[in-house]
Amino acid sequence: MQLRIQINDTTRDIDVPQFMLEEGEDFFTQLDQDMNKGYQMSRLWVDKPDQEQRCQIIADKILTALTNGNMKSGTLMAAYILKRMPQVREVHMNIEGDMTGHELVQ
């Protein structure tokens, strides 16, 4: 599967292998358990992030991974989004420091 990432005027497609979607569930569950404790989403503390907020949090991790050149981590985070919200095909990143502005596009 593929997740398209839009950062300003740059578009990047992340190819997620099928095995990563199937075999990554333990890792995805760990991410969910961590977020179950609440999460600081930019200036806002969220006690119980909903699925969209969780994917915005993970999208922020993709942005960090891409910025640092860590494609393995970026691909794994893209797999989380595709697994938890399979209808999402694109993420439009907010680069102004507010992860709540990451837009999940179907």
Descriptive key words:
106 residues; alpha+beta; 4-stranded mixed beta sheet; two-stranded antiparallel ribbon; 4 helices
Question: Please, could you describe this protein's structure?
Answer:
The chain has 106 residues and is α+β, with helices and mostly antiparallel strands. The chain has one domain (2-105). It contains four helices and six strands; from the N terminus they run ββααββααββ. The protein has helices at 18-23, 25-35, 51-67, 71-84, and strands spanning 2-7, 10-15, 39-41, 44-46, 90-93, 103-105. The strands form two sheets. A four-stranded mixed β-sheet has the order 2-1-5-6, with helices on one face. A two-stranded antiparallel ribbon has the order 3-4. Helix 3 packs antiparallel against helix 4 (71-84). The mean pLDDT is 96.
Mean pLDDT: 96
Q: Please identify the structural class as seen in this structure.
A: alpha+beta
Q: How much of the polypeptide forms β-strand, as a percent range? A: 15-25%
Helical segment count = 4
Low-confidence stretches: none
Q: In whole angstroms, how far apart are the ends?
A: 14 Å
Q: What's the short story on this structure?
A:
With 106 residues, the protein is α+β, with helices and mostly antiparallel strands. Helix content is 45%, strand content 24%.
Set out the fold topology.
Blueprint lengths: L1 E6 L2 E6 L2 H6 L1 H11 L3 E3 L2 E3 L4 H17 L3 H14 L5 E4 L9 E3 L1
